[in-house]
From TrEMBL, chains A, B:
This is Uncharacterized protein. Residues 1-31 are annotated as: Disordered. SUPFAM superfamilies: FAD-linked reductases, C-terminal domain, FAD/NAD(P)-binding domain, Thioredoxin-like. Residues 423-605 form the Phenol hydroxylase-like C-terminal dimerisation domain. It holds the Pfam family Phe_hydrox_dim. Keywords: FAD, Flavoprotein, Oxidoreductase. Belongs to the PheA/TfdB FAD monooxygenase family. It comes from Neoarthrinium moseri. The keyword Cytoplasm does not apply. Gene3D superfamilies: 3.40.30.20, D-Amino Acid Oxidase, subunit A, domain 2 (3.30.9.10), FAD/NAD(P)-binding domain (3.50.50.60). Residues 38-390 form the FAD-binding domain. Pathway: Secondary metabolite biosynthesis. GO terms for molecular function: FAD binding; oxidoreductase activity, acting on paired donors, with incorporation or reduction of molecular oxygen, NAD(P)H as one donor, and incorporation of one atom of oxygen.
Amino acid sequence: MAPHATDSDVEMSHQPSKQHEETVPNQVGDEMATPVNTDVCIIGAGPAGLMLACLLVRFGIRTTVFDERSDQTTVGRADGVQPKTIETMRMLGIGNDLMRLGKKIYDICIWRGSDSVSLTRVGRETHYPDGIVDILEPYILIGHQGMIEKAFLDDLHERGVEVARSYQFTGCQLRSQNKTSVLVQSSYGTAREPRSIEASYLVGCDGAHSSVRNFILEAPPRGSGASVWGVLDGELDTNFPDIWSKTVIFSEQYGSILIIPRERNMTRFYIEIKETASAKDLGEAFVKQRARDILKPYRLDWRSVEWFGKYQVAQRVAAKFTDPSQRLFIAGDASHAHSPKAAQGMNTSVHDTWNLGWKLNLAARGIAKPALLESYELERQKIARDLINFDYEHANQIAGGDADALAKNFRQNIRFISGVGADYAPNVINQGHDVATGAAQPGCNVPPAKATRYIDANPIDIQLDIPVLGQFRVYVFLGDITSSTAQAFLSTLSCAVLSENSVLQQLSEAAEQSYEKCPRPSAPEDVYTNPRSEWTVYLDDVPHLDTKGKTCTEKWLGSVGTSEAVIVNVRPDGYVGSLGRWDTRGFSGSVAAEWLGKYYGEFLQVPKPDLGTL
Amino acid sequence: MAPHATDSDVEMSHQPSKQHEETVPNQVGDEMATPVNTDVCIIGAGPAGLMLACLLVRFGIRTTVFDERSDQTTVGRADGVQPKTIETMRMLGIGNDLMRLGKKIYDICIWRGSDSVSLTRVGRETHYPDGIVDILEPYILIGHQGMIEKAFLDDLHERGVEVARSYQFTGCQLRSQNKTSVLVQSSYGTAREPRSIEASYLVGCDGAHSSVRNFILEAPPRGSGASVWGVLDGELDTNFPDIWSKTVIFSEQYGSILIIPRERNMTRFYIEIKETASAKDLGEAFVKQRARDILKPYRLDWRSVEWFGKYQVAQRVAAKFTDPSQRLFIAGDASHAHSPKAAQGMNTSVHDTWNLGWKLNLAARGIAKPALLESYELERQKIARDLINFDYEHANQIAGGDADALAKNFRQNIRFISGVGADYAPNVINQGHDVATGAAQPGCNVPPAKATRYIDANPIDIQLDIPVLGQFRVYVFLGDITSSTAQAFLSTLSCAVLSENSVLQQLSEAAEQSYEKCPRPSAPEDVYTNPRSEWTVYLDDVPHLDTKGKTCTEKWLGSVGTSEAVIVNVRPDGYVGSLGRWDTRGFSGSVAAEWLGKYYGEFLQVPKPDLGTL
């Protein structure tokens, strides 16, 4: 998460709208190419805003990103990329350099010392143990926030979009009678020239002191459990042995410290200062001395310090993530805040917009019913609350010094910490819990699994194989493809889905028309992908030794009988949407087609001419 | 391999030397920065030359690469990267984009048709079956030669070196009485301006029609079994199902064809034309029609054609790969030629210089005895002959149409085809076959294996973990690190190795002095690697499920008893150099230190002041 500034909140300015000032670029370095309107305006180019921009841009939505900083982050700040975030970035093909160059943390060490007992290692464990968390890449990836932001910025650049920097958001207002657009005001550069742009949607990814939030909430969210943290990145000279693991150290006398190994031989120290009333008193020298005290009798010095930051953190969740018109949204630190210790902030933030992005795409195209955008707040507010609850306990236990309690809390929450355990409750897009017999549960991420791609016999990771284009994925599992009833089911299913009365067919046609009008832009590397449908037929025949004991079908569904067919609708963000299960001896595929139509019809629609801005 | 031009050999011009014309750049775009001498001059910027350049540059050797072409390859030519080549590139950290974007071939299909039997698939098999070939990445990676060359060129660029293009090699002569340098002559640009440069070594990577070769051999190598091939890259419109596998098709009437799937939806056809006397008659239309005939009754058309090439191939191996002075060398197609069918050419070529590079580094630093450079020809000529023998049979069987015989030949040679089976005979650097009890055999590549890096608990691939810096790696295996005799062995070994009389210590000091004088240049990404010695302590504790049944020790050595110590010397190119095995209850580590000194002393030396050019 971005550190809180410890000064007071930025003053809000509700400027009157200026009509269509034609000076807002959506590409830096091209300031005279001036769209006066955009589909989505994003305030803030941190991880949450950049994730949203990457998604919308590749889906073909005109996107403008404002950031008040003149340059991107180069050091410090957020740095822990959790396994689910790694998976999400892999799904997007983003961050290859980061994955290669970042430091990987596989284990966690716990040390303890008191007046009577000298500092001792009391535990060393695998951070994400196999069999407890099911993830393809079971480590935390460490790179400074600049490396992470660069991954997103490079991806935007590949599709011709740059962040508009030195733009400070100053206010906004819903424009027309039926509230289908919002006028966004900003000031540009050091001269603070006023600028404005008209957007269909405005998303505030502008951090803990969000200004956009003030247009959604009457009062800023109240925090509880404020604590002060010092954070230091530097290269150490020490004889303490565990600086290459994630390490928690409790000193009865001096408090606790969290050590995170960094890329480029650096080490990060998180230290909580309880006795100081405010972060103002907390300097680099103070934090260094405290770290030395805690690590005694080990020697500790710094060869160099790259970054020092301080946080004053109150745990809080905004009461609303959107306004009643569904034109304004907040995401990331703007909507929730918590301690940095569990390395969750950035990970939760990018998944806020990972959730919002595809919904905004469908809404902007007029294909979404209001229920779809409503699900954003429903789903992500739950996760923010889960996070606060976990964080409160976790931070207390790190500070409290009970190694056993910390280990227990950690083990109980490990799925959640990894990110794969961010489960959504049943709602209009998460249905069918009654037929879910495996780990593919509605509202949950699909578990990683291996399969063989039929067309070219390549073993693939099924959760990564299909490019993220904003589309739902409909997986049909057949227990036995050679069974005649299964084949009949498949062909009646295809016929029914493709018939012109079919809801799915009508929605597909509407989507196709929209994408013809506003196509997805291509990046140079897109020529190397194979998004055609014949590339999405898989055999679940990878040997158990290669899949660590469970095939895709076994993982996702428990089992599928030889005459059974199961359909899993997977949302564009990789979550299970809904499941259906049929015995092909008793049911025709047309039943399944109807079921599909019912599901998608609940939150998607064929746009009426006056809806849909694209 | 680069296709043979079918015109006659380029005329050799033996120009008289011009004294030190100061106009030869070693960096393109910097033509006025003119070193008049260099350590190694490489002729030809194909894969063999570029691999050599990448190695020498990162080892700190001044390197100049001349290429007669004005631009790099963009389409066609070599395209199959075999598993060993993938591993080698991973060892160097080269080609990350290529690995990500290239097409992967996992299986091989065989089809057969005749007058009486319509074209039918007679087999579909895994190309590199698990359990038969032990490789980390069991596929052929496909990308056009430009993608492959770009991987090397990018790596050179990172270290500040560019290929000098539009330079045509015209001749050379050994300069001084004691033959320690060679004057290399070339002509530059369309005006063919004469240029010259003085080099300690000259390496001809200038293809099948090598000009450098003429200064090593009296007569060019004679070929046998000449055949004519047409090669076509394009996007197909076809209903033939197996264009995404490597596919061999035999038609009794029309001959055989080899299909290789390509990146960017393309397909490559290799077709051998037996009845035409020369390649001159072989046009694109002819090849297309022949392919259509062979694929009947399937429909076949081309949406686009990216590249058409023709080859006239004679199988041959040069009698000498170096001259008596050990100042001139040839590598790659300059030293051997064969059919393109088994996708071996480029793979063999880059491993020629993978073998030569580290030897030249040590020779240029004066640390190598003559025996080290002598081993280049010994080792690589054997591989070239193995390749010719295999290729002769393999090509005959592809052309001959006996699917069973082809499959058998293929299975027998699969280790060799993958590249990991390029085994060298015993010589001064490959010793100790008597104590080799596992797959780590002297003169063979170390098998891939997993281990846990002790310092940060990261699971790693041991064959890839240590950066390639031109150094030998000495792996010490202990059956039980807690055994007191093992610990005593380890400490007496360290003391003996570090004592000032130790051969290893003297060689290390000589190397250190040389690297201080001519250091390895750093690339921006080097800050992310950890080459320090504490990063090379490993635990062989990865669960059998993750290692597919065999730990590193089991793979490499069979077994190591609890009181045993085994030392494996691994050459800079990842080949096993020698092995020693001791019972630590009976032997002190000083015995092993002596053994180490004896091994390294046979081919390394402390440079005398008048030797060594660095």
